[in-house]
TrEMBL record:
Residues 5-316 form the FAD/NAD(P)-binding domain. GO terms for molecular function: oxidoreductase activity. This is NADPH-dependent 2,4-dienoyl-CoA reductase, sulfur reductase. It comes from Roseovarius nanhaiticus. The keyword Oxidoreductase applies. Pfam families: Fer2_BFD (PF04324), Pyr_redox_2 (PF07992).
């Protein structure tokens, strides 16, 4: 596609929905996604799996319709495209294979989704310790099932993965959950509003019922996670629960502490970001239509604030409708009328978030782990080394990055940035708001020199 009307970055629920709405409205859509197939994390490979993996659930299979709708003459879907720069114009630069490309459009929608919050503790870098989301990717893409696994942390995803494992015939050995009764009591005032999202509440209760019926032990109020390798080569997972030291031997340890917006692309594009105290993360500043303070740039989906798949799809639809209005394809009144169902769906999906955010907030010992914990996996820096750097005068993320190289590895801070902020705030989530995020510089994903060279050639030819 030579001259797209809109470039969409990310083919999850928000990106796929926006692409369909924009294409049906007559816009030429360039859809860039890093994955080999559309779907995002929640609907990954849904169109290919069909009913082969029924244990993933009906809602997962329903995502196939979104992916199949991308087969439209106005949609140019580029799988395997790694976007690494957004320039004024706006122009988008990405790599695919061994070459880099550039395209400009009047509108760019960033639908980059979310990433799992890192769960650092002593031993989290051991083989066999991975995030629950990573395990779910293997379940969806390869049909690989996590056997003799423990699920540890908090958040609705733990219950979903546990239920999927039970349906697949490999129930988890245990759920070790950090949420506690005080967290639930703090969340209780948000329950009346959460009833607008009753469908999600009922789904969560159903997952818990399946876990109980399968006889999976649950340890709540857990803390002080620690993993090591036992004499049999298995993982020895230790933690505190109800005032007692606990130990579980397992083959896999799957961790999770919720998800946070993926903001490297939006930050590198110069979009303003604000701290969300409820979600303990930064998120882009945008209005209800996804419009940001940068001309032509929109953000939708979990990359604009965690809301889940239904909220992401609704936000993608609203952004696409506003772009159709801005392009002169529909009037403002038509946009408002057509967006009414999406706005209602977005309200229902978001209504439950304050309750979930309060009930499953990350604990202090995860935000600011013990000294022996590896924080920056790329540079193998421990929490103790970070604290020593702070004591010697590194008073913020940028100074820590300069002095210790934390965040300068291939992940570019995705795995350590939040933890460094937590250490600076001594694990106090309310204090983390005062610590600005370091600027995300391009390229926001590693790029080979050969790819840069091809980009230069392409720009010279187009000039």
């Amino acid at each position: 596609m030579t001259h797209p009307d809109i470039i969409i970055i990310g083919a999850g629920p928000a990106g796929m929905t926006a692409a369909r709405i924009a294409a049906e409205g007559g816009l030429q859509v360039l859809l860039l996604d890093e994955q080999p197939r559309a779907g995002g994390q929640i609907f990954r490979d849904a169109a290919q799996n069909g009913d082969r993996r029924a244990w993933l659930g009906q809602e997962y299979r329903a995502g196939a319709a979104l992916a199949l709708a991308l087969d439209h003459p106005h949609i140019d879907h580029r799988p395997g495209a790694r976007v690494w720069r957004i320039e004024a114009g706006p122009r988008v630069v990405w790599s695919n294979g061994e070459a880099s490309h550039v395209a400009a459009a009047p509108h760019v929608l960033i639908a980059s989704g979310a990433q799992e919050r890192p769960v650092p503790f002593p031993g989290w870098t051991l083989p066999g310790v991975m995030t629950a989301g990573a395990a779910q990717i293997l379940m969806k893409t390869s049909g690989m099932l996590p056997r003799r696994a423990v699920l540890a942390g908090s958040g609705p995803l733990l219950y979903l993965v546990a239920a999927q494992m039970i349906a697949a015939g490999c129930p988890p050995l245990a759920l070790v959950e950090t949420q506690s009764l005080p967290m639930l009591l703090r969340a209780a005032p948000h329950l009346p509003k959460a009833l607008f999202g009753a469908k999600t509440l009922v789904k969560g209760l159903g997952l818990l019922a399946r876990i109980r019926a399968a006889g999976v032990p649950r340890h709540t109020g857990a803390s002080n996670f620690c993993a090591s390798e036992d004499q049999d080569g298995r993982i020895a997972f230790r933690f505190q629960a109800k005032g007692r030291a606990q130990r579980i031997a397992c083959d896999l340890l799957l961790t999770h502490q919720g998800v946070i917006p993926s903001t490297h692309i939006s930050r590198s594009a110069g979009i303003d970001h604000a701290w969300s105290r409820a979600q303990v993360a930064f998120q882009p500043v945008c209005d209800d239509w996804g419009r940001t303070g940068r001309d032509g740039l929109y953000v939708a989906g979990d990359g604009a604030g965690i809301g889940g798949a239904d909220a992401a799809a609704a936000a993608g639809e609203m952004a696409a409708l506003d772009i159709l209005r801005s392009s002169g394809r529909i009037s403002e009144d038509a946009r408002d009328q057509r967006s009414a169902p999406a706005r209602a769906a977005l309200f229902r999906a978001r209504a439950i978030r304050p309750f979930l955010d309060a009930a499953y907030s990350p604990p202090a010992d995860i935000l600011s782990p013990p000294d022996e914990t590896i924080v920056c996996r790329c540079e193998e820096l421990s929490a103790g080394a970070i604290r020593q750097g702070i004591a010697e005068g590194a008073g913020g993320p940028r100074q820590i990055k300069t002095a210790l190289r934390a965040g300068m590895g291939p992940c570019q801070g995705r795995m350590c940035e939040g933890t460094i902020r937590g250490i600076l705030a001594n694990g106090d989530a309310s204090e983390m708001a005062r610590i600005d995020p370091p600027r995300a510089r391009t390229p926001v994903t590693p790029v080979r020199l050969g790819e840069l060279a091809t980009l230069k050639t392409r720009l010279e030819q187009s000039a």
